[in-house]
Structure formats: C-alpha cells, structure tokens
Amino acid sequence: RAAEYGRDAAEAFAAQPQCRQTLEGFASALYWVGLNFATLCRLGGAGQWSSSQACAVAEDALEMAHSMVTEDTPPHRVAELYFVDGVLSFCKAEAVRQEHLSLPGRDKDSLERELQTKALQSLEHAYSQWCEAYGEKHLQTVKAITMIGLLQNKLNGKDAGIEWYRRELRIREEIQGELHPRTQQARRTYTSMIDEQLSSSIPDQKVLNEAIAASSSSPAPAGEQSSVVVAQLLSEAGQFKNAETILRESQEKARKTVSGGGSFRELPGGRPEGKPKSGPEYLRWGEISLHCAELLNKWAAASPEYSKDMMIRASEYAVDAVEVFSNLMQTEQSETNERKYSEALYWMGLNFATLCRLGGGGKWSTQQAYDVSNSSLADCEKLRLNAPDEKRAEVIFAQGVLCFCKAEAVLAGYLRSTKMDKQQLVERKFMQALQLFEHANQLWTGVYGEKHLETVKAITMIGTLLHRLQGAQAGMEWFRKELKIREELQGEMHPRTQQARRMYTSLLDAKLQAERRGEGNQGVTRMSSSEETQDSEMQDAK
C-alpha cells in the first residue's frame, strides 16, 4: 500500500503544470517511491510487483530524482537521495541473500557484500551532508546513523556497529522521548546487541590460570593480596564467577594450612579443636571469606536470575568472616580488626536479609535469616556510632534492605503478621525502607556526590520503593537516573548496567501497555506485579 501511494503521488505531480511547488512535490514523491519500492524488493515483491520489478521501479525513481539535482539544490536534499541510494543497495543485498534477486554469473556472497559496501558508502555520504545541514541530533541524521550501524554490524562485526546503535538510542531518547516507539525499538536493538556480545565474551583462561597459580603459590600475606587484587579487577569487569574461583582457591589453601589438611566445614564446630584462632593464615581465611561474601552479593544483584544457592553461599561466607574477626577482636582490639569486623557484620546483614526474602535456605529458616540480619546490623550500628557519614550510611542502607526484604517475605507468605493486617504491615515496612534509603542517599550524596557506586545503590532502591508504593511513573525517573550513572561509571557492558537497563526498559514497556489500556497508576496494588518484574527489583536489594 505504501508503494501504491508513492506511485500515485508521483503520477499526480507529474501531470501538473511545472512550477516550484509541483516540482518539490514530485521530488518528494520520488523519494518515497524509491524507499517504498526498495523495501518491497527486499521483501520479495508483493501485489503486482515481483522483487526485480520493485527494484526496477525504485531505480527509475532514483534516476529521475538525480536528474533534477542542480547547483542550487540544498545539501540536505542531496543527502536524501544518497540515503535512498544506500537503502536501495541494502535492500538489494538482502534480496540477494534471501534469493529473491540474482545476477547470472555472479557469486551470491560476493554480490551481497559488494551491495552492502556500496550502501554503506552512500549512507555515510548522506550522514555527512545531514550533519552539515542539521547537526547530528536531528531526525533526518539519525536515520543514516541507524542504517550505518546496521551495515557496520553486517560488514565489520558487532564491535563496529554497537557504537552507532548506542548513538542512535541516545539521540532518539533526547529528540523523540523515552516512550516513542522508535526509541523503544532502538533500545531493544541496542540491548540485544550488548547481550549477544556479553554472551560471546570468553575470558582469557590462560590469564585466569596464571592468576590462580600466582595467588596460590605466593606466601601470605602476599598471596592473599595477589588473589584479592585479581578478584577485585575481575569483579569490577563483571566476571564474578572467575573472581570467586580465584578467591576460593586462595581460601582453600588457608583452610588446609590452619586445619592441617582438612576443611573447616568438614570438622565439628567449623575448625579442629586445639588450633589457634589467630595467625596469618587464619586472618587470610577470614579476609577471603569477607571478600567472597561481598562478591557473591554483587554477582546476585547483577544477574537476571539468581539462585537461593548463591545467597546461601554468600551468607555462609559472611558467617565465617564474622566469626574470624570476632575472635581476632577478642585477641587484639585494633582499629583494623574492628573495621573488618564491622564490614563482615554489614555483609552478613545484607546477605541474610536477602535470604529472608527468598524464604530462608540451607540451615536457616526465613525467621532465622531475618533474626541474624537484624542482630548483625544492630551490632554493626553500635560499632559505627561515631564513624564517618559514608560508613553510617551503609548501615542505614542495609537496614532499609532488611525492611524491604521483610515486606517481600510477608507478601510471599514466608513470614506472617500476628499484630496487624498483612497489607498494612507490608506498606509500613515499605515506607520505613523508603525513609532509610532516602537518608542513606542524602549522606552518600553529601560525601561522594550523586555519581558514585555507593550513592547509586540508594537511587536504585528509592526507585524500587516509589514504584511499589506509587506506581511505575513515580519510580521511572529514579531508574533512569540509575541507568545513566551506571553507564557512565561501570560502562555499557557491565552486568550491573545491563540489569539496570533491563529494569528500566521493562518499566517503559509496562507504562506503554498501561497507557494503551487506559489504566492509571495502581499505587500499592502494584505489589502483586509479575514475578519477573519482582525479581528484577529484588536483585537491587543487595
């Protein structure tokens, strides 16, 4: 139908007496004839046109349009012709690939690549002309950007195309808005590209093996420091599994040294009787446990789905770390031991809060997980009464997470309220959590500013709570803020950025669907949203 309308328009303007207005109308009609018939060619033809006939109509329209170009034709009009030239070459390449078109004596693959290369050259010319006429942030220019990204991807691989897709998304967000269908399409394409790139990324196993060997063979504390540094670098790059592998190798060495070849977990009480609860290897074991408790928490938060098993392991690591530094505090009241002990209590509070939300696991019931988290955070709060604002903010943030996770556990039926209505308790805990997150955000922003990985945790959870309490629109801006900060600080490819993008995109899609149905915000009733959306939000609690 689009092709028929374009042809009818061209014929109508061609039949009119020539004047400036009819010539401009005829030129515009030829532009759309070229585009629409090029697309019809790509689709294998339809209606009264075969693929080759549609291609011929598009070529005739373009030839006619080029013949109308004069020295006085503005650059942006010339750019339109180059753009259609590029689209036609691309569509012919696609028609060749799908065997709708063929040329006798020509190899299919070489012909397809030749047409793609020609298309890219034409589109790059159009892009240059439109940038000169309008600048990059214009709806004409962004059409060329879209097609250049597509062709770079086909000709030179995903790495070549991904930056163009990113550029398209940013421009459409700014010009057309987050909710425009073209922006949504650009976001889906860009997210899909990054997901594909991440799934095909394989870490250098040789480097990983060398790092493990170096950390395992080095004497403590050098070995512990080596393994921790390597693991932190891997964790920051989003390679959580490899980071845990290195830490576990180092921890196992410390276990065997202290236990005389055994494993702490295999012995009554956690470690053999008569062994000293001090010394460099004992300290090393505690520090590695602390790093693992943190690592698995962040890994879970960055995953589209996370297992109860992962949080059980994270909780066990936290228990080990707390036990080690509690014992060391009894032996030596040092600033270092107190700092490590408070850190271990902090991660124990966070990990057991999440375990509570998941319905308990391992040897802990839901209520036991809640109690462990609550008491850990109370002890941590006492240790940090006079600590700097950024450390007090950590405790406040973790207390907010515990309130949030308790509400989720009540909603899921893992915990029951005996003193008030279930819905009232849930809303009350959500409100308490929101106030705590806002307080933490205020403290962290005062110390670090908004663009910091500590501050962004509070931003994430404020968005989550506003979404729960007031609906998607209330949390939307906070989720958008989180995504932009993570893109800047952690990069487009980091799993945590990907998780933020998935969450933000799902909210945009939900908002669009709600608007189509004519629904308004549902407030607290959104607490019964789909399991997938709940899982996305819950990961941020870590």
Please describe what this structure looks like.
This protein is 76% helix and 1% strand. A two-stranded antiparallel ribbon has the order 1-2. Helix 11 packs antiparallel against helix 12. It is elongated, with a radius of gyration of 30 Å.
Q: Which helices and strands, and how do they pair?
A:
Blueprint (H helix, E strand, L loop, with lengths): L1 H13 L5 H23 L2 E2 L2 E2 H17 L7 H23 L10 H27 L4 H18 L1 H18 L5 H19 L5 H13 L4 H15 L3 H20 L20 H23 L5 H24 L3 H23 L8 H18 L5 H24 L9 H27 L6 H16 L1 H19 L4 H23 L13 H9 L3
Antiparallel strand pairs: 1-2
What is the global morphology? Answer: elongated
**Average pLDDT value?**
81
What is the structural class? Answer: mainly alpha
Q: For the terminal residues, how far apart are their CA atoms?
A: 53 Å
Strand order of the largest sheet: 1-2
Total number of beta strands: 2
Number of helices: 21
Oligomer: single chain
CA gyration radius, whole angstroms: 30 Å
Largest β sheet strand count, sense and barrel closure? 2 strands, antiparallel
Share of helix, binned: over 70%
Order of helices and strands: HHEEHHHHHHHHHHHHHHHHHHH
Q: Approximately how much beta-strand content do the residues carry? A: under 5%
In the predicted model, the low-confidence regions spanning at least 5 consecutive residues are: 214-226, 260-275, 519-542
Write a compact overview of the structure shown.
With 542 residues, this protein is mostly helical. It has helices at 2-14, 20-42, 51-67, 75-97, 108-134, 139-156, 158-175, 181-199, 205-217, 222-236, 240-259, 280-302, 308-331, 335-357, 366-383, 389-412, 422-448, 455-470, 472-490, 495-517, 531-539, and strands spanning 45-46, 49-50. Helix 1 (2-14) packs antiparallel against helix 2 (20-42) and helix 3 runs antiparallel to helix 4 (75-97).
